[in-house]
Specification:
This protein is of the alpha+beta class. 31% of the residues lie in helices and 28% in strands. The chain contains 17 helices and 31 strands. The strands form eight sheets. Strands 3, 7, 8, 9, 10, 11, 12, 21 and 24 form a nine-stranded mixed β-sheet that branches. A five-stranded mixed β-sheet has the order 16-14-15-17-20, sandwiched between helices. Strands 28-27-29-30-31 form a five-stranded mixed β-sheet, sandwiched between helices. The structure holds one RNA strand of 75 nucleotides.
RNA sequence: CGGGGCGUGGUGCAGGGGUAGCACGCCACUUUUGGGAAGUGGAGGUCGCAGGUUCGAAUCCUGCCGCCCCGACCA
């Protein structure tokens, strides 16, 4: 591709306040925004995305995946059958066709896969199977963010495993677990697998693959000693030993204008963890149901984790309760507790059940109580793990301490089980002719997010520096100046490279060298090849890695040297892939059972 | 949806009652050519939309729309 022919240009400036990766993708001319969370890909972005597609296809095919393609528009009926029509919020875009039939834009494809399976699979001989597609999803997110990190329309590689039983599912799960590490590594992304919430997918075990980054939106919990890794939404630190001191009688204590944990802690000279904090939420369990007040109880030094509360209450919608809603229940903001409240669902963190004689609100302005004992004083409270795991808490699996990190989710894997099969009637006949449900798994990777993570990981002050596996072109060819012999040599070398199938972006513009070098650095191709009066005087052609030192090769050997250098770049990536996969194999056998 | 901010040539911004400006980019010519060149000349904007106030609105008021950032959602 000649720069003089290319659609799209580089920009000198980008809006302030955006993520660096987003600014660079914008400035380098990879993407352009159309609306909130909706982007076009320019040639460079489209080519990078194609590279990502290739990696995904290769790795999915390698584990036996078969590529299919499913529709973007679904009849509402299949979403009704799975129950998600009512369970999913406005993220699922619904509309009606001209006949007034309910339709939806695909936000994921479990329903369609299960429907396909119902008719395509009928015997145990038809299993196991893995199908996948690389296709557009639309999710009307409440808030898009960070350029390609979080968009409303995005392209996802979504794979689905179909198995006879749990054992088969476990095997498919392990295959994807390994493939996801390979995919991330080939894209130059260091990732960690963490246990995750199953969310709207339902099912049992799930992992997220996280690119660790301070700009990430997820909080992750790691144990450096044993390798425990979980999203903060599901991380469960080790519970403390139950306290054994005798339960003392409740005792009211005056605490004027002490409405926060910090106030009460100071006033009564007790540690925040000795306070049972009560937080009121408004919970709606189904789209056609009324909301209700739920009181969440956690230790005073911790926060209610909304994902955990959502799971504990089977909530569809969850938001902090308003002052009116609290007052209607008899609660007193600032002095809340389950004491004396009628008809309010109370969910308490299990830690509180193990502590004795805590302080909590008296539901009376200006008063708290001492010697609150959860199991005695709020006997109908449901117990769950509600508090967000915090830095330094004890690991559930070993004596180590947990650490917090931030990450961006680039992919996830779910063990779905048989929920969708049952809903769509996806069954098969086993050897004895018995009808059984197909066991499903679901495995997603966001392509745009992958590119954004790669840009976040691979850049410097001059611009992008993408790995050769993702860069839109392998080579940026720069012709410096307008001298005849320079142009002739550059044109010839360009033609040679093209003839040899080397992907090259040739800057043949008639502008100053500074602009060309700056643009080459900004666009981030891994190898720069320069032909100039100086390089010709020095013997031929200059080669320079995006982040390396230049060297000169003769014009005759230029093509060979370029191919060798590109080979080296690919080989280095391959070597790091092998290096990274060793611990992954140990991780798989340690956490998922036998490798297969 | 709650909170904050911003909508002015292609991009990034300034202006803040008297009819629109800067830098970069773009076009033409000349001179330049190893790190975002110089000169000369030029093109390009219903100032997000609608209504109102005013002799006069990009500017003030009201409403709406859009976009960004922080929170509840997720690839």
């Amino acid at each position: 591709m000649r720069v003089t022919q290319m659609f799209g240009t580089t920009l000198r400036s980008a809006p302030e306040g955006e993520l660096v990766s987003h600014q660079l993708l914008l400035r380098a001319g990879y993407i352009q925004q159309l609306a909130a969370g909706i982007f076009s890909l320019l040639p460079l972005g489209a080519r990078s995305m194609e590279k990502i597609r290739t990696i995904l296809r290769q790795e999915m095919d390698a584990i036996g995946g078969q590529e299919i393609s499913m529709p973007v528009v679904h009849p509402g009926e299949i979403w009704r059958r799975s129950g998600r029509w009512d369970k999913v919020d406005a993220t699922l875009v619904r509309f009606q066709d001209r006949r007034g039939r309910d339709m939806a834009l695909a936000m994921t494809h479990e329903e369609v896969v299960a429907d396909l399976t119902a008719s395509q699979v009928s015997s145990y001989r038809d299993l196991p199977r893995i199908v996948y597609q690389i296709q557009t999803k639309f999710r009307d997110e409440p808030r898009s963010r960070g350029g390609l990190i979080r968009t409303r329309e995005f392209v996802m590689k979504d794979a689905y495993s179909l198995d006879r039983d749990e054992e088969g599912l476990g095997r498919a799960y392990r295959l994807h677990f390994r493939a996801y590490f390979r995919i991330a590594s080939r894209a130059g992304l260091p990732v960690a697998a963490v246990l995750s919430d199953v969310g709207m997918m339902g099912g049992r075990m799930a992992h997220e693959f996280m690119y660790l980054s301070d700009v990430g939106e997820d909080t992750l919990i790691f144990c450096a000693d044993c390798g425990y890794a979980a999203n903060q939404e599901v991380a469960e630190p080790r519970l403390p030993e139950p306290e054994t001191e005798p339960e003392l009688p409740l005792e009211e204590v005056e605490t004027p204008s002490a409405t926060t944990v910090a106030d009460v802690s100071r006033l009564l000279e007790i540690a925040p963890e000795r306070i049972s904090k009560s937080v009121a939420y408004w919970v709606q369990r189904a789209r056609d149901q009324e909301g209700e007040l739920v009181l969440a109880l956690v230790p005073g030094n911790s926060e209610v984790n909304l994902a955990k509360l959502r799971n504990a209450t089977s909530a569809l919608e969850l938001r902090p309760a308003t002052a009116e809603e609290i007052a209607a229940s008899g609660g007193v903001p600032g002095y809340m507790s389950p004491l004396g409240l009628q008809g309010v669902t109370v969910v308490a963190d299990e830690v509180l059940a193990r502590r004795r004689n805590l302080v909590t609100g008296a539901n009376r302005p200006g008063w708290h109580v001492r010697n609150f004992n959860l199991l005695r004083d709020a006997a109908d409270a449901r117990l769950a793990r509600l508090a967000s795991a915090q830095d330094g808490e004890p690991c559930p699996n070993c004596p180590g301490k947990l650490q917090l990190r931030r990450g961006i989710e680039f992919g996830n894997i779910f063990q779905l089980g048989t929920d969708y099969s049952r809903a769509m009637g996806a069954t098969y006949a086993d050897e004895e002719g018995r009808e059984r449900l197909v066991v499903m798994g679901s495995y997603g990777i966001g392509l745009g997010r992958m590119l954004a993570c790669a840009a976040e990981e691979h850049h410097d002050e001059r611009g992008l520096a993408l790995p050769i596996s993702l860069a839109p072109f392998a080579v940026a060819l720069v012709a410096v100046g307008g001298r005849e012999d320079v142009r002739a040599a550059a044109d010839a070398l360009y033609e040679e490279m093209v003839a040899f199938g080397i992907e090259v972006l040739y800057d043949d513009r008639d502008i100053s060298p500074g602009v060309k070098f700056a643009d080459a650095d900004l666009r981030g191709m891994p190898l720069r090849v320069t032909i100039s009066p100086r390089s010709l005087d020095a013997g031929g052609v200059e080669l320079k890695r995006r982040s390396g030192e230049p060297f000169v090769v003769t014009r005759e050997h230029a093509l060979g040297a370029i191919r060798e250098e590109l080979g080296l770049l690919a080989a280095e990536l391959e070597a790091s892939l092998r290096h990274r996969m060793e611990p992954v194999e140990q991780l798989i056998s340690a956490t998922l059972g036998d490798p297969s």
